[in-house]
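Sorry to interrupt, but I need a hand with the structure work. Could you write out one complete protein record for me, on any chain you like? Could you add the entry underneath, on a fresh line?
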Amino acid sequence: MFPARILAGAPLALVALALSGCSSHWGCTDTTAERGEAGVSVQVEDTSGRPLGVTAEVVDWRLEPHPQVPSEGDQVHFHYRFDGADEISGPAVDACAVDEERVALGCQTVYSSEAFGPDGVLTGDDWLAVEHPEQVAGVLLIPNDQSYDGRTCEQDIKDGGGPHPPEPAGMGDQL
C-alpha cells in the first residue's frame, strides 16, 4: 500500500504538471480571425476584431512602369498612410489592387514600420504587379493586423495557440 504522504502529495504533483504544460496538449487551441471589410480607409483591428487606434488609408494610386523594371509595363503604384501607428512595431495590413467587382488582382502586406513621418502619421508607397493592370479599379486595404506572427499549436504545442490573423488576401479573393 502507498504511504499517506505520497497520496497527499499526488494532487500537488498533478497541478504542477498541468501548470507547466506537460500534462497534455488539450489546452492548446488555434483560432483564426474573420477577415474584416476592405476599404480605402480602415480602422486597423487586432486578432479579436478590436480597433487598435490606428487608421490605414490609401492616399492615391496610379498605373505606371516601375522605374527599376520599366520593360515589365504598368504596375500599380500606390501611396498609403498610417495614422496613430508606432514607428517601430506598428501594425501591418494587406493592400490589394481590385477590379470593379472588388475581386483582388494582386495583394501584398504593407507595414507601418516601413513608412515615415512625424507625429504618428506615417506615409509610404509601394508597388503591386498585376497581370492585367487595365482591370484595376482601385486599391483597398484589409483592416486585419497582419504583423502578429504567433506560433500555432502544430508548431509549438506548449507555447503556441491562440488567435491568429486571417490568411492574407490573394488573387481572386472577393473583397
Observations:
- The first helix runs from residue 4 to 20.
- Residues 46 and 145 are 6 Å apart (CA to CA).
